[in-house]
What we know:
By secondary structure, the protein is α+β, with helices and mostly antiparallel strands. It has a domain at 10-17 and 52-129: Thiol Ester Dehydrase, Chain A (Roll). The protein has helices spanning 19-29, 34-37, 39-44, 54-69; strands at 10-16, 73-82, 91-101, 106-114, 119-129. Strands 1-3-4-5-2 form a five-stranded antiparallel beta sheet, with helices on one face. The model has no long low-confidence stretch (mean pLDDT 94).
Amino acid sequence: MTTTLKAGDTMSFRKTLTVAEQAMYTGISGNLAPLYVDQRAARAAGFDTVLAFELHGVALATTALNRLAGPAWRLAGLTIDFSAPVQVGQTVESSVEVTAADASSIICKVRCAIAGGDTVASGTAKLVPVKAG
């Protein structure tokens, strides 16, 4: 597999995390932790509304990665540190930047931030060519 990507290539994806998506993600994950599903618990903890699941925001990075590399590549690894919570209703922008690319893998820096603001998650991703199993 070859790639035309090179260090410095970037892509980003931005989306507002909605109440409906939070409900679907709750159903998918089964996570009923109070800060994610209970408005009163979130307010008692000092937030205006419930928190979005951390992986919900980082999932936006997978969209940016796919748009950057294309359908011949798949996610093989992801290392993420979460530095701040995201509230449902906030807009998150996930940006990826190629740091290395060759025929066997693409390595990217990942950054998720509140649109126009603070970083909420950062790390690295590794993409590899898709191969039938």
